[in-house]
Design a protein that fits this description.
The complex is a heterodimer of chains A (124) and B (135). By secondary structure, chain A is mostly helical. Chain A has a two-stranded antiparallel ribbon. Chain A is built from 4 helices and 3 strands. The radius of gyration of chain A is 18 Å and the shape is elongated. In chain B, helix 1 (3-22) packs parallel to helix 3 (84-122). Chain B is elongated. Chain B has helices spanning 3-22, 32-59, 84-122, and strands spanning 63-65, 74-75, 78-79. The termini of chain B are far apart. With 135 residues, chain B is mostly helical. Classes of the chains: A mainly alpha (124), B mainly alpha (135).
Chain lengths: 124, 135
Protein backbone atom coordinates (compact mmCIF):
# COMPACT_ATOMS: atom_id res chain seq x y z
CA UNK A 1 0.00 0.00 0.00
CA UNK A 2 1.29 3.40 -0.95
CA UNK A 3 0.02 6.93 -0.59
CA UNK A 4 0.87 10.57 -0.76
CA UNK A 5 0.05 11.65 2.81
CA UNK A 6 3.64 12.08 4.04
CA UNK A 7 4.90 13.83 0.90
CA UNK A 8 1.77 15.98 0.85
CA UNK A 9 2.23 16.99 4.49
CA UNK A 10 5.87 17.85 3.81
CA UNK A 11 4.99 19.95 0.76
CA UNK A 12 2.22 21.82 2.60
CA UNK A 13 4.54 22.55 5.55
CA UNK A 14 7.35 23.60 3.22
CA UNK A 15 4.94 25.82 1.29
CA UNK A 16 3.85 27.52 4.52
CA UNK A 17 7.44 28.20 5.54
CA UNK A 18 8.13 29.60 2.06
CA UNK A 19 5.21 32.00 2.62
CA UNK A 20 6.71 33.07 5.97
CA UNK A 21 10.09 33.51 4.26
CA UNK A 22 8.44 35.61 1.54
CA UNK A 23 6.44 37.70 4.01
CA UNK A 24 9.44 38.70 6.17
CA UNK A 25 12.19 38.21 3.56
CA UNK A 26 14.49 36.38 5.92
CA UNK A 27 16.21 33.72 3.82
CA UNK A 28 15.49 32.89 0.17
CA UNK A 29 13.82 36.29 -0.23
CA UNK A 30 16.62 38.06 1.61
CA UNK A 31 19.53 36.82 -0.47
CA UNK A 32 18.64 34.04 -2.93
CA UNK A 33 22.19 33.17 -3.95
CA UNK A 34 23.51 32.96 -0.39
CA UNK A 35 20.40 31.01 0.68
CA UNK A 36 20.79 28.53 -2.19
CA UNK A 37 24.36 27.76 -1.12
CA UNK A 38 23.26 27.21 2.50
CA UNK A 39 20.33 24.99 1.43
CA UNK A 40 22.45 22.90 -0.93
CA UNK A 41 25.20 22.42 1.66
CA UNK A 42 22.66 21.55 4.38
CA UNK A 43 20.81 19.03 2.21
CA UNK A 44 24.08 17.34 1.21
CA UNK A 45 25.19 17.20 4.83
CA UNK A 46 21.97 15.60 6.09
CA UNK A 47 21.76 13.16 3.18
CA UNK A 48 25.30 12.07 4.09
CA UNK A 49 24.16 11.57 7.70
CA UNK A 50 21.17 9.57 6.46
CA UNK A 51 23.31 7.38 4.22
CA UNK A 52 25.71 6.76 7.11
CA UNK A 53 22.77 5.72 9.30
CA UNK A 54 21.33 3.47 6.63
CA UNK A 55 24.59 1.73 5.72
CA UNK A 56 25.39 1.05 9.38
CA UNK A 57 21.94 -0.45 9.80
CA UNK A 58 20.71 2.14 12.32
CA UNK A 59 17.89 3.53 10.12
CA UNK A 60 15.37 1.52 8.18
CA UNK A 61 12.45 2.76 6.22
CA UNK A 62 9.09 2.01 7.72
CA UNK A 63 6.11 0.31 6.20
CA UNK A 64 3.67 3.19 6.35
CA UNK A 65 0.91 3.24 3.75
CA UNK A 66 1.32 7.04 3.65
CA UNK A 67 4.49 6.96 1.57
CA UNK A 68 4.79 6.93 -2.21
CA UNK A 69 7.06 3.89 -2.15
CA UNK A 70 9.52 5.65 -4.43
CA UNK A 71 13.06 5.06 -3.20
CA UNK A 72 16.07 7.08 -4.35
CA UNK A 73 18.31 4.38 -2.87
CA UNK A 74 17.65 1.31 -0.75
CA UNK A 75 15.90 2.48 2.47
CA UNK A 76 16.11 6.11 1.26
CA UNK A 77 12.57 7.19 0.31
CA UNK A 78 11.89 10.17 -1.95
CA UNK A 79 10.20 11.86 1.01
CA UNK A 80 13.46 12.00 2.97
CA UNK A 81 14.96 14.41 0.43
CA UNK A 82 12.01 16.76 0.95
CA UNK A 83 12.26 16.30 4.71
CA UNK A 84 15.92 17.39 4.92
CA UNK A 85 15.27 20.32 2.54
CA UNK A 86 12.34 21.39 4.72
CA UNK A 87 14.45 21.04 7.89
CA UNK A 88 17.21 23.24 6.46
CA UNK A 89 14.81 25.89 5.20
CA UNK A 90 12.83 25.89 8.47
CA UNK A 91 16.05 26.29 10.46
CA UNK A 92 17.13 29.31 8.44
CA UNK A 93 13.69 30.96 8.50
CA UNK A 94 13.57 30.55 12.30
CA UNK A 95 17.09 31.93 12.52
CA UNK A 96 16.13 34.94 10.41
CA UNK A 97 13.01 35.60 12.49
CA UNK A 98 14.93 35.28 15.77
CA UNK A 99 17.61 37.62 14.43
CA UNK A 100 15.00 40.19 13.50
CA UNK A 101 12.45 40.03 16.31
CA UNK A 102 13.97 38.29 19.33
CA UNK A 103 17.70 39.00 19.37
CA UNK A 104 18.33 41.80 16.84
CA UNK A 105 21.71 43.41 16.25
CA UNK A 106 22.56 45.56 19.26
CA UNK A 107 23.80 48.56 17.36
CA UNK A 108 20.68 49.18 15.31
CA UNK A 109 18.36 48.53 18.23
CA UNK A 110 20.33 50.98 20.36
CA UNK A 111 20.24 53.74 17.78
CA UNK A 112 16.53 54.05 17.18
CA UNK A 113 13.35 53.35 19.15
CA UNK A 114 11.52 50.21 18.06
CA UNK A 115 8.88 52.11 16.10
CA UNK A 116 11.35 54.19 14.10
CA UNK A 117 13.68 51.29 13.41
CA UNK A 118 14.08 50.46 9.74
CA UNK A 119 13.64 46.88 8.60
CA UNK A 120 16.69 44.93 9.65
CA UNK A 121 18.36 42.01 8.03
CA UNK A 122 19.51 41.85 4.46
CA UNK A 123 19.76 44.61 1.99
CA UNK A 124 17.05 44.35 -0.70
CA UNK B 1 28.22 1.44 15.51
CA UNK B 2 25.59 2.97 17.77
CA UNK B 3 23.44 5.94 16.75
CA UNK B 4 25.06 7.98 19.57
CA UNK B 5 28.53 7.25 18.18
CA UNK B 6 27.46 8.17 14.65
CA UNK B 7 26.01 11.44 15.98
CA UNK B 8 29.22 12.11 17.91
CA UNK B 9 31.18 11.88 14.66
CA UNK B 10 28.81 14.18 12.78
CA UNK B 11 28.51 16.69 15.63
CA UNK B 12 32.30 16.86 15.87
CA UNK B 13 32.42 17.78 12.19
CA UNK B 14 29.69 20.38 12.82
CA UNK B 15 31.60 21.94 15.72
CA UNK B 16 34.88 22.16 13.81
CA UNK B 17 33.25 23.59 10.68
CA UNK B 18 31.25 26.10 12.75
CA UNK B 19 34.30 27.38 14.63
CA UNK B 20 36.20 27.75 11.35
CA UNK B 21 33.28 29.58 9.71
CA UNK B 22 32.87 31.91 12.70
CA UNK B 23 36.56 32.87 12.97
CA UNK B 24 36.72 36.65 13.10
CA UNK B 25 32.94 36.99 13.30
CA UNK B 26 33.18 38.97 16.57
CA UNK B 27 34.40 41.92 14.55
CA UNK B 28 31.01 42.17 12.85
CA UNK B 29 28.00 44.06 14.11
CA UNK B 30 26.63 41.05 15.90
CA UNK B 31 28.67 39.78 18.84
CA UNK B 32 29.50 36.09 18.99
CA UNK B 33 27.51 35.70 22.21
CA UNK B 34 24.40 37.00 20.50
CA UNK B 35 25.06 34.71 17.53
CA UNK B 36 25.16 31.63 19.76
CA UNK B 37 22.10 32.81 21.68
CA UNK B 38 20.15 32.96 18.41
CA UNK B 39 21.19 29.43 17.54
CA UNK B 40 20.21 28.29 21.03
CA UNK B 41 16.70 29.74 20.57
CA UNK B 42 16.42 28.11 17.13
CA UNK B 43 17.58 24.79 18.57
CA UNK B 44 15.02 24.92 21.39
CA UNK B 45 12.21 25.58 18.90
CA UNK B 46 13.41 22.81 16.57
CA UNK B 47 13.85 20.42 19.50
CA UNK B 48 10.21 20.81 20.51
CA UNK B 49 9.12 20.27 16.89
CA UNK B 50 11.42 17.25 16.64
CA UNK B 51 9.98 15.56 19.73
CA UNK B 52 6.40 16.14 18.57
CA UNK B 53 6.74 15.30 14.89
CA UNK B 54 9.36 12.56 15.29
CA UNK B 55 6.91 10.83 17.61
CA UNK B 56 4.13 11.16 15.05
CA UNK B 57 6.37 9.96 12.22
CA UNK B 58 7.57 6.94 14.19
CA UNK B 59 4.00 6.16 15.23
CA UNK B 60 2.99 6.35 11.53
CA UNK B 61 5.84 3.92 10.75
CA UNK B 62 7.57 6.24 8.28
CA UNK B 63 10.94 4.99 9.54
CA UNK B 64 12.34 2.67 12.17
CA UNK B 65 15.44 2.34 14.26
CA UNK B 66 17.32 -0.87 14.91
CA UNK B 67 17.06 -1.34 18.69
CA UNK B 68 20.54 -2.78 19.08
CA UNK B 69 22.08 0.54 17.97
CA UNK B 70 19.92 2.71 20.22
CA UNK B 71 20.43 4.08 23.73
CA UNK B 72 16.78 3.34 24.45
CA UNK B 73 16.16 6.79 25.91
CA UNK B 74 13.08 8.36 24.36
CA UNK B 75 10.94 11.45 24.78
CA UNK B 76 7.52 10.38 23.65
CA UNK B 77 8.41 8.01 20.83
CA UNK B 78 11.35 10.14 19.70
CA UNK B 79 14.78 8.71 20.54
CA UNK B 80 16.97 11.37 22.20
CA UNK B 81 19.60 10.67 19.53
CA UNK B 82 17.36 12.37 16.96
CA UNK B 83 17.88 15.71 18.75
CA UNK B 84 21.38 15.75 17.22
CA UNK B 85 19.79 16.70 13.88
CA UNK B 86 18.19 20.00 14.98
CA UNK B 87 21.33 20.75 17.01
CA UNK B 88 23.56 20.36 13.94
CA UNK B 89 21.13 22.30 11.78
CA UNK B 90 20.70 25.21 14.24
CA UNK B 91 24.46 25.74 14.47
CA UNK B 92 26.04 24.79 11.15
CA UNK B 93 23.60 26.40 8.70
CA UNK B 94 23.52 29.87 10.34
CA UNK B 95 27.33 29.68 10.59
CA UNK B 96 27.59 29.13 6.85
CA UNK B 97 25.05 31.92 6.24
CA UNK B 98 27.06 34.29 8.46
CA UNK B 99 30.32 33.35 6.76
CA UNK B 100 28.87 33.90 3.27
CA UNK B 101 27.49 37.28 4.39
CA UNK B 102 30.85 38.43 5.74
CA UNK B 103 32.57 37.28 2.57
CA UNK B 104 30.12 39.31 0.48
CA UNK B 105 30.61 42.36 2.72
CA UNK B 106 34.40 42.10 2.44
CA UNK B 107 34.21 41.80 -1.35
CA UNK B 108 31.83 44.76 -1.49
CA UNK B 109 33.99 47.03 0.68
CA UNK B 110 37.07 46.10 -1.37
CA UNK B 111 35.15 47.03 -4.49
CA UNK B 112 33.96 50.36 -3.09
CA UNK B 113 37.47 51.14 -1.79
CA UNK B 114 38.81 50.47 -5.27
CA UNK B 115 36.27 52.75 -6.92
CA UNK B 116 36.91 55.43 -4.28
CA UNK B 117 40.62 55.18 -5.02
CA UNK B 118 40.17 55.59 -8.74
CA UNK B 119 37.80 58.49 -8.15
CA UNK B 120 40.39 60.11 -5.87
CA UNK B 121 43.21 59.69 -8.37
CA UNK B 122 41.15 61.28 -11.12
CA UNK B 123 40.41 64.29 -8.91
CA UNK B 124 42.93 67.12 -8.79
CA UNK B 125 44.04 66.40 -5.27
CA UNK B 126 42.18 64.56 -2.52
CA UNK B 127 41.54 66.49 0.65
CA UNK B 128 43.67 65.35 3.59
CA UNK B 129 41.78 62.66 5.47
CA UNK B 130 43.50 62.86 8.82
CA UNK B 131 45.99 65.08 10.61
CA UNK B 132 48.77 62.51 10.10
CA UNK B 133 48.65 62.87 6.34
CA UNK B 134 48.98 66.68 6.44
CA UNK B 135 52.63 67.69 6.21
Amino acid sequence: MTGWEYLGALLVSFGCMLLVDHRWRVFLWANPRRAAVVLAAGVMFFVLWDVAGITTGIFERGDSPGMTGIELAPDFPLEELFFVTFLCHLTMVLHGLVARFVLPDRRSSDLAPAGARPAQGERP
Amino acid sequence: MTYLLLNGAFLTVVLVLTLVLLRGAQTTQTGLGRWWARSAVVFLALAVLTVVFDSIMIWADLFRFDDEHMSGMRIGLAPIEDLAWPLASAVLLPALWTWLGRRDAVAESAESAESAESAASSATRPAPVSPETTP
